[in-house]
Amino acid sequence: MRASLLALAIAIGFNASAQGTYQLAVMKYNGGGDWYANPTAVPNLVKFCNEQLGMNINTEVPNVDVGSPDIFTYPWLDVTGHGNITFSAQEAENLRNYLIGGGFLHVSDNYGIDKFLRPAMKTVFPELEFVELPFAHPVYHQKFDFPKGLPKIHEHDGLPAQGFGLIWEGRLVCYYDYQCDLGDGWEDRDVHNDPPELHNTALRMGANMVQYVFGGAQ
To answer: For residue 143, what is the enclosing H or E element?
Structure first.
């Protein structure tokens, strides 16, 4: 996509966000991983943000291919899965242009995506490394305060939850929750039988991300 068209597409997306008409989208990818896992997760996050943050996000959450120009319609892409994720050269370039142009990517490790995600994102940003965000990062201190950083939602390997980021020219363009599984926590409670407080904790952390990305950064 030419730079002028990219700027226009991103401007349209963020102008829509200013009007409260924007949408969050789930990103489809190739490689065999289950990009479609956690179907109730992002819709529940949208509902929570509308209720708790006074937002007016469109409650329809579309699925969009990573290589499609349609990704520029959505200022937030959400990714999850357990298995393989790969990007073709065209898909990597498309996602890179989207993120550099102002888009945001959230990745939730649904247990197993880590060893595939890291090399995939290297094709998008070969010059960047995932860095663990410090507990003082503003994403943890929006409406809801998380003084110890990313909360632990699901057990996985029993390791501490870690929040990693890709930072492009000082801007957080991708947030990756690892050993946490925010997506599972956002799902309908009866899917994983999560207690109400754990479910709410996951949604609060998600709301912090939304508030941070859409103008809530301190």
So the answer is: none
Strand partners, 63: 26
Q: Is 191 helix (H, G, I), strand (E, B) or coil?
A: helix
10-residue stretch averages of pLDDT, the chain, 218 residues long? 41 48 92 92 97 94 98 97 95 98 95 94 98 98 97 81 97 96 90 86 98 71
Q: Say how far residue 211 (Cα) sits from the centre of its chain.
A: 12
Q: How far is CA 177 from CA 14, 18, 56, 128, in A?
A: 24, 27, 25, 17
pLDDT at 28: 98
Helix (H, G, I), strand (E, B) or coil at 28: strand
Can you give the pLDDT at residue 176? Answer: 98
What is the pLDDT at residue 111? 82
Instruction: Show the tokens assigned to 87.
Output: 């990007």
Of 3.65.10.10, 3.40.50.12140, 3.40.50.1450, 3.40.50.1010, the CATH number of 3-216 is 3.40.50.12140
Break the chain into its structural domains and give their ranges: 3-216
pTM above 0.85, yes or no: yes
Question: First and final CA of the chain: distance in angstroms?
Answer: 32
**Residues near 51 by Cβ (< 8 Å), separated by ≥ 6?**
none
Q: How many other C-beta atoms are found inside a 10 Å radius of the C-beta of residue 169?
A: 6
